[in-house]
Design a protein that fits this description.
mainly alpha, single chain, 2 domains, 5 helices
Amino acid sequence: MSRKRFTPEQIIGKLREAEVALAQGETVAQVCRTLGIAEQTFYRWRLEYGGLKVEQAKRLKALEQENTRLRRAVADLTLDKQILQEAARETSKPTVAGNASSISGGLYRCRNAVSAG
């Protein structure tokens, strides 16, 4: 069975229909069958959109989308910050070539001291 996507307006309309049918004595299973949705969907919708009006549901969806967009922006900026911090750490470390000359000079002196002795 293909999955349908309902707009918030459609969901609120279906919930209102369900409230009327439940008040008339129908069971949740019967109401869900007539609406063409699963019981789980009905309960999820009722939890999310229970007392909302259409305008409030639209505002809720808009805020959820804005929140998602802002979370992505924060994640991108955090990643950029970590990359820049890593690059700054690497540039502040002494180079390997600078250490090699002092190490090789020390080994050279050590060999001379051993061979002279």
